[in-house]
Amino acid sequence: MSASILIVDDEELIRWSVAQDLGKSGYKTRSADGVVDALRLIEKEIPDLILTDLRLQGESGLDLLKKVARGYPDVPIVLMTGFADVDTVVEVMREGAADFISKPLQLSALKITIKRVLETAALRTRLEGAHQKRRRRYSFESLVHESPSMQEAVETARKIAASPHGTVLILGESGVGKDRMARAIHYEGTRASEPFMEISCGSIPELLLESELFGTEKGAFTGASERKKGLFETASGGTVFLNEIGHMPMSLQVKMLRVLEDKTFKRVGGREDITVDVRIIAATNADLEKGIREGTFREDLYYRINVLMIHLLPLRERKADISPLIELLLESISSDLRREKLRLPEETRRAMLEYPWPGNVRELRNALEKMMILGETEFRPTGVGKAVSSAFSAAAPPPLVEATPFRAANGVDSSTEEAIRPLEEIEVEMIRRALKKTNNNQQKAAQVLGISRDALRRRVEKYGL
């Protein structure tokens, strides 16, 4: 579809010649001899670009620029004049003109300018569309919060998002939605139009993590052939999300203290201090207080990041969220797979409500996606989740449900009362079995348990196995 251009000039010959030339290049043109005529045409059909002379009879092109900027801010305007001076150029550009062209017009140069301005406007429109799509996707309303604990978490997050300042710490098990909460705080907040940059502190080698965060100077190390900005510089004005901060190396924790204190750092191999304006959101599934006691996490860093804290409970402790999550995820998966939404029988829904979901929302989504792809409606837990779910009725040794003897009123011993072991104890037992079976090969043990190697590694660290 050809772009439409409104040409505004009080000289008929210029309007005609420009319209003829642009028409031959495939543009759709309309013409106006002044501001009043131009505004009338804009009300009928908004053009893709306005090309106007600066000096017109009556109101000027600058007046048109100001009125269009108020009513149609997305329409780019290119001004033409034969009386250009520095002050005029500065003024029209300050008012929002897309470009400025001197008369007499060079039609070839004019078409190059128009093409560039239209491409820039189209790119801006696409970026704005993508931004609005992200805002809808990561809004607080997109977070299921039927349970009281999630309602409280979302309410706290709304208050946090209303201010551009304050470091945020999000705690919770793997898969509870810490990253979604972080994005919601960003995209519902005052920094929404600025970058959101995420990095996983536990999955990147120490040297690479430092350069990714702070950037590098040319020659800082072998292969650093040019200066590179880090996440903090790239995200300036926006948000940096430090996922799994509990696994950040101790040497980098020291450098993070300064960033949190005054938003200042040095690039790797650099001497110059760089200051940025960013909000920092950190998240972890690790027990940071335990890390402090064991010497793997700095106490001063803990107090720096624990300014505004949100704790997301595991899915097994907020069962009111499971049913609406199932519906939301089924809608999302059916859209992604371009398939009809799966209809789950009542017994499947009951099984899902009773299941403990050790992998939380991530595991729930994976289970639903698998069922939809395979066309199944029966829920079949796998891996650690299956072991945990069946543990309460397992009879094989070592017993996961232990009989506790007691003496009845008639004095006869009985072992019919059952004591249920804690969920974490059961998970530890299953991990130990898997590691023993695979001779401590974490990759194979993770496959046996049906989880990722990183998930197993985090559990091994969590339980000190």
If strands are numbered along the chain, what order do they take across the biggest sheet?
2-1-3-4-5
- Ends: how far apart? 64 Å
Biggest sheet architecture: 5 strands, parallel
CATH class of the largest domain: Alpha Beta
CA radius of gyration:
31 Å
Mean pLDDT: 86
Q: What is the annotated CATH architecture of the largest domain?
A: 3-Layer(aba) Sandwich
Work out the helicity level: 40-55%
How many domains, as an integer?
4
* Gross morphology: elongated
| Low-pLDDT residue spans | 391-418
Q: CATH superfamily membership of the largest domain, which one?
A: P-loop containing nucleotide triphosphate hydrolases
What is the tally of beta strands? 16
Q: How many individual helices?
A: 19
What class would the helix/strand composition place it in? alpha/beta
Beta-strand content bin: 5-15%
Output the CATH topology of the largest domain.
Rossmann fold
